[in-house]
Specification:
Chain A contains five helices and five strands. Chain A is an alpha+beta fold. The longest helix of chain A has 16 residues, at 139-154. Chain A is globular, with a radius of gyration of 15 Å. Classes of the chains: A alpha+beta, B mainly alpha.
Chain lengths: 159, 193
């Protein structure tokens, strides 16, 4: 066991866990931030995606010992993020969600994409989002929602 | 007379030392033999999996296409939304994901295999590695330093463990032997087959 202090959603949080504990379990079990989901445990599905230092990161394979000083941002913080809000609204307007299990990872990745690419085309969306899996098959609406959000962001829309 | 003999003696010693120094430099044959050792490392999966000719890395000892549809991206670091750093950290993770600082693909100018995965010959890889217009302007000494110090190069010799506990295979030389072979090859003038 060791004590780690990490920055999560703008707050310093200290946890005493084994150094090999994946960040996913620190978030869910130690910090009770259960919006980030466990889907596969091997970085294959993207349900566990969070932002670490602004980079979409698979928290299921990131040991707490390697987080360091990077700020961790979870789905819980997206309502307070300028791009996150627009993405969430687009998700609702497009009625993307079915079961919802993958969607926190989808939204985090979409936010990361839109923060780097102003107007992603189909190729950019497929390449950037293609490793976030959705068993309900909401990909078509995800693509549509990303384009809607991109358009709104280009128009300078913020809540 | 004595001064003249001393002067001649000094000249003879200087000649002997210079001949000794010249003899210490590896021959072209020795350099080529050293290059074969270097080549054996460069074409090991830990190295060649990121020296691809495609828009994606390979992985595994069988050099299959990297799973999850990861792609090269404009800077060899993936694309927004799915970067190399999405999974690969600055060091090997206990979860089985390999890592090193600056994890990324080698540039296409440093492809050491064809698009269909056939390794290039030692001659072709050697020409590629020594082409300063495409190798990042590295001369012999800089190549030696690259092999000795570059984090991604060093990672290949300490690649960590797979997610299920098995160790990644390592190149046929130790890092020390690889650097030693590189040094011989560089000191021989980086000859290519």
């Amino acid at each position: 066991m060791a004590t780690y202090t990490i920055t999560v959603n703008g707050q310093n949080r200290s946890v005493a866990v084994d150094p090999d504990t994946p960040l996913l379990w620190v978030l869910r079990e130690e910090l009770r931030l259960t919006g980030t989901k466990y889907g596969c445990g091997v970085a294959a599905c993207g349900a566990c995606t969070v932002l670490a230092g602004g980079i979409p990161t698979r928290s299921c394979v990131l040991p707490i010992s390697l987080v360091g000083a990077r700020e961790v941002t979870t789905i819980e913080a997206m309502a307070h993020d300028a791009v996150g809000r627009v993405v969430q609204d687009a998700w609702v307007a497009t009625d993307v969600v079915q079961c919802g299990y993958c969607q926190s990872g989808q939204i985090i990745t979409a936010v990361a994409l839109l923060k780097r690419v102003n107007n992603p085309d189909d190729t950019a969306i497929e390449q950037g989002m293609g490793a976030n899996l959705c068993r309900c098959g909401t990909y078509v609406r995800i693509r549509q929602a990303i384009k809607t959000a991109a358009q709104q962001l280009q128009q300078g829309r913020t809540r | 007379m004595t001064r003249g003999i001393t002067h001649i003696g000094n000249i003879l010693v200087a000649i002997a030392l210079s001949v000794t120094t010249l003899a210490a430099a590896p021959s072209r044959t020795e350099g080529l033999a050293a290059w074969q050792q270097v080549y054996s490392v460069l074409t090991h999966p830990r190295c060649i999996n990121c020296h691809t000719a495609t828009n994606h890395p390979d992985q595994g000892d069988d050099r299959h296409r990297h799973v999850f549809n990861v792609v090269r991206g404009p800077a060899g670091q993936g694309v927004p939304g799915l970067q190399c750093a999405t999974c690969h950290q600055r060091s090997n993770a206990s979860t089985g994901i390999p890592g090193a600082p600056g994890w990324r693909l080698a540039p296409l100018s440093m492809q050491w295999q064809s698009a269909d995965g056939r390794m290039f010959s030692g001659a072709r890889v050697c020409r590629s590695v020594t082409n300063r217009s495409t190798n990042g302007h590295l001369d012999g000494p800089a190549l030696l330093e690259h092999h000795a110090q570059a984090p991604l190069v060093r990672w290949a010799f300490e690649p960590g463990h797979l997610p299920y506990g098995n160790a990644f295979t390592v190149p046929p030389l130790t890092h020390e032997a690889f650097v030693s072979a590189t040094r011989i090859w560089v000191e021989a003038g980086t000859p290519c087959p």
